Amino acid sequence: MSNNTYNADSIQVLHGLDAVRKRPGMYIGPTNSTGLHHLIWEIVGNAIDEAMCGYGKTITVTIFKDGSCGVLDEGRGIPVGINKEEGRPAVELVFSELHAGGKFSDSAYKNAGGLHGVGAAVTNALSVYLDVTVYNDGEIYHLRYENGGHLVTKLEKLGPTKKRGTLVRFKPDPEIFSTVEFKADVIQDHLQENAFLIGGVKFIFNDERTGESKTFCYEKGLQEYIANMNGEKSPLTPIIHFHEFDEDSRVETEISLQYCNGVYDETIFSYANLIRTRDGGSHETGFRNGLTRAINDFAENNGLLKGKKLEGADIREGITAIISIKIPEDILLFESQTKGKLTTPVVTTVVQNVIYNKLTYYLTENKEIALDLIHKCVASQQARMAARKAKEEARSSKKAKQEVILSDKLTPAQSKQYMLNELFIVEGDSAGGTAKKGRDRIHQAILPLRGKPLNTDSVSLDRLLQNEEFATLINTIGAGFGQTFDISDIHYGKIIIMTDADTDGAHIQTLLLTFFYKYMKQLVTAGHIYIAVPPLYRVFKEEGHKKIQQYAWSDEELEIAKKKVGAGYKINRYKGLGEMDAIQLKETTMDPRTRLLVKVDIEDPFLVEKRINVLMGRDASLRRKWVEDNVDFNTVDTFLKEVK
Ligand code: TTJ
């Protein structure tokens, strides 16, 4: 325990928690649902630290009926002894002193999972109550805070116990957060992700609001993470796993990877001290360098290269990899507050050496797998060179910007200013016809999709590719797909999916999104994909020659619309696009001045990957359930941003 850092008296300590309440954003980010869940991650992170130090194998998170959350571990218990400098029990300081958490922990990797790593005191400051129970030395200890971190029950003994561990239960303050409703799926995702990252620790989730209970425990950790991500894909290699501790730098590196057939892109996730590093950084750089060198060297030494060296992209095509490193807190460096990118320099060489040495050894020991893998890399290389050559030839013969032969189904836009053009992909021929009449012919193109072929319950993307509709779609967009997709060639600035507001429509949306994400990923990440949101109601009446009307996109809006139109109104309830005429469709869904669009906004590739696995998996009932649970036409999905 450090011995010279505490000089704050209790008044300053309280002041500290007040500061958190005044500016919660500085400590937990936004005070929306995301921030709300950070309260849990801060607490769970402490329990995880203890488990990673080897104390306790089970962490239980419970949401209670009163909206509070309890986190229980089986560790050594937060120390209850009196802290000499402060003259107060250490456990009390943990919850009332900002940043105190780590000072009482001997873990090198503290703040696991807590995004800002600000500690348990922040959770306390933003709660209406927080109860701590410590089971240690045969005694139950208890203390309680209320009202944003005011100590109301000092540390007390409650009686004997045989248990060991810590239980923290808190209820978030509705005056701070825009919502205080914990979401079961968000918590489960977080716990599952941690369970994958720390093999062998059991995470239990109980939701007493619904009676639901789930357990996540993966003895094989990252390897099961990969298995879970690649579930339905056809593997080219087994899951390959490396784990190494570097004594000099004290960096622990764990890598799991697998190659699959029929996959064009690479999926690489990285973590530093259990924090997801979305934008990669030194560990990912080291991984890429080491992987490229190992495979090139091996291929060269075994006479498998056909001429030129393989490029990194050739080597990574079809890979799924997870890199998880753990490093001492004092050299854990991120590019910014949001911790998206690791910058600790030494990590690059450490990870590079691990993957280079271990993979070289693995390939030598597993010649057949090595041959399969190198053949795939060489095939990728050749495909890439052929695509490049074809493109150069097309460019030089000035065919490049000529329209590809378009399906007769497409009604093209007249303008050649591609970025201003919009492609509407419309569910059904009849709605397609209406859209054709309602469109702006200069900038809007219509591509009707027949609902039927998309509607099968066991869709494989490979089959979708052979499907005529998708072939048309690829041609229409005009920029290729998969490895040869080139975003600079797209023929439309906005690609707008327009379906009925029902379950089938939602299913078509998700199939299309999945298709785009998989084969034209940049279209999605660069924000070119939109979903049109048709209204649910039209409220109208005729007064003489005057027509008064209002559209409504939700039941709340319907009530407002009824008032606006006034007595004697009639209501159209739209069950599908087909029930609108061209003018109505134009006004509500197509005209940029009046329509409602949502932009598909991928914030979290982890969730997307997961969503895609559910959606494209073999289990049709899971998929249907997902669509029913998550696609709500009255609210805007969290992945989507409202735009015009
Ligand atoms: C610190 O070093 C001495 C033995 O106990 C170590 C410790 O801090 N253990 C510990 C803390 N176990 N569990 C926690 C903990 C658990 C939860 C749920 C919440 C918090 C803030 C801490």
Bound molecules: ligand TTJ
Sheet having the most strands: 8 strands, mixed
Please tell me the overall pLDDT.
84
Proportion of β residues?
15-25%
Given as residue ranges, the uncertain stretches (5+ residues, pLDDT < 50) are 1-14, 100-117, 398-406, 452-458, 630-644
Can you list the strand order of the major beta sheet?
A: 7-6-5-8-2-1-9-10
Helix content: 25-40%
Structure description:
With 644 residues, the chain is α+β, with helices and mostly antiparallel strands. Helix content is 38%, strand content 22%. The protein has an eight-stranded mixed beta sheet. Helix 10 crosses helix 11 (367-396). The two termini are 56 Å apart. Residues 1-14, 100-117, 398-406, 452-458 and 630-644 have low confidence and may be disordered. The site of ligand TTJ has 18 residues, from helix 3, strand 2 and strand 8.
Summarize this structure as a short list of keywords or feature phrases.
644 residues; binds ligand TTJ; disordered C terminus; 24 strands; eight-stranded mixed beta sheet; alpha+beta; 21 helices; single chain
Short description:
With 644 residues, the chain is α+β, with helices and mostly antiparallel strands. 38% of the residues lie in helices and 22% in strands. It has an eight-stranded mixed beta sheet with strand order 7-6-5-8-2-1-9-10. Strands 17-16-18-19-23-24 form a six-stranded mixed beta sheet, with helices on both faces.
